[in-house]
Amino acid sequence: MKKVKVYVTLRESVLDPQGSAVMGSLHKMGYGEVEDVRIGKYLELVIGDSERDVDALVNELCHRLLANTVIEDYRFEIEEVVSQ
Amino acid sequence: MKFAVIVFPGSNCDLDMYHAVKDELGEEAEYVWHDSKDLSSYDGILLPGGFSYGDYLRCGAIAQFSGVMDEVRKAAEAGKPVLGICNGFQILTEAGLLPGVLLRNKNLKFMCRTVGLKVENNNTLFTNEYEQGQEIQIPIAHGEGNYFCDDATYNHLKENNQIVFSYADDFNGSRNNIAGIINERGNVLGMMPHPERAVSDLIGGTDGLALFRSIVKQWREANVSHA
């Protein structure tokens, strides 16, 4: 069994109005040193034992559904889960 | 002409869509649930607005894998008119039937009002009853209507006259004020504004009627022989 942590982020070329609003708020709070805020998504998947290569599988999941690669990039980490 | 109004869990403009073609134009229409496996008996496919699957993950992302979408693809490949309005447009982009994507409005607000639209291309099966360049008033109601595409896609849309409607003013951040686009073949239209909500003076205007009339007119000319 494996735990997969997927991070989906907006591409650099895409404006992130949510991130800009949060940055504006941080600036108002006095944190002027914050230069940029980008908001993304974090997903955790648990993948059962499979014949398939997990790396290839997660790439496929990201491409087909979890991320829209027109506007989003993704990366992921795979952790081995030791069953108790 | 017989229309299918596709109903996803969370669709909420399906009744308006049905009303527009059935009651206002007197055509046949049926509601079709999202797991239907056969759309072959319909002449036109309507994907209504709403919040399919709660807009979870991204608008339209989950609906693109509904059982009926294989049939919608088949209908598009067969050249049947496929019209996606609002969430229907978002579903068509997620499904890859139209290019680009709809982002959050630039001001982060859900916006609900009547706006001015310009008919950029009246040489389509959806717009032949409008004048080229005509300004019409159509309601919008969306939080994610900010059309985005890369430069190459935009140039391609422009060269092929695939931009069908644009907003008179920029209020949601859409690239070049794009409000609606069509596929290369010219039978799949996606638009954020709601023509189905502008089909009667009782509800504030009739500028949307010509869109539905265009579809029916084109279909009649192609399929009904005149004695």
Describe this structure in words.
The complex is a heterodimer of chains A (84) and B (227). Chain A has helices at 17-28, 54-66, and strands at residues 2-10, 41-47, 72-80. Chain A is α+β, with helices and mostly antiparallel strands. Chain A has one domain: Mth169, Chain: A (2-Layer Sandwich), CATH 3.30.1280.10. Chain A has a 3-stranded antiparallel sheet with strand order 2-1-3, with helices on one face. The longest helix of chain A has 13 residues, at 54-66. The mean pLDDT of chain A is 94. Chain B is built from 5 helices and 11 strands. A 9-stranded mixed sheet of chain B has the order 2-1-3-4-11-10-9-6-7, with helices on both faces. Chain B has helices spanning 14-24, 68-77, 87-94, 151-159, 209-223; strands spanning 2-7, 28-33, 44-47, 82-85, 101-103, 111-119, 135-142, 146-148, 163-167, 178-182, 188-191. Chain B is α/β, with parallel strands linked by helices and 227 residues long. Chain B is globular, with a radius of gyration of 16 Å. Chain B has one domain: 3-Layer(aba) Sandwich (Rossmann fold), CATH 3.40.50. Classes of the chains: A alpha+beta (84), B alpha/beta (227). The A-B interface holds A 13-15, 17-18, 21, 65-66, 68, 70-71 and B 57-58, 61-62, 65, 94, 100-101, 103-108, 148-150, 173.
Give me the Rg of chain A, rounded. Answer: 17 Å
Sheet/helix structural class of chain A: alpha+beta
CATH class of chain B: Alpha Beta
CATH topology of chain A: Mth169, Chain: A
Q: What would the principal axes of the Cα set say about the shape of chain A?
A: elongated
Helical coverage of chain B, percent range: 10-25%
pLDDT < 50 stretches of chain A: none
Q: Regarding CATH, which class of chain A?
A: Alpha Beta
How many DSSP-defined strands of chain B? 11
**Structural class estimated from helices and strands of chain B:** alpha/beta
Pfam families (chain B): GATase_5
Catalytic activity (chain B): L-glutamine + H2O = L-glutamate + NH4(+); N(2)-formyl-N(1)-(5-phospho-beta-D-ribosyl)glycinamide + L-glutamine + ATP + H2O = 2-formamido-N(1)-(5-O-phospho-beta-D-ribosyl)acetamidine + L-glutamate + ADP + phosphate + H(+)
InterPro entries (chain B): Class_I_gatase-like, PRibForGlyAmidine_synth_PurQ
Active site (chain B): 86, 194, 196
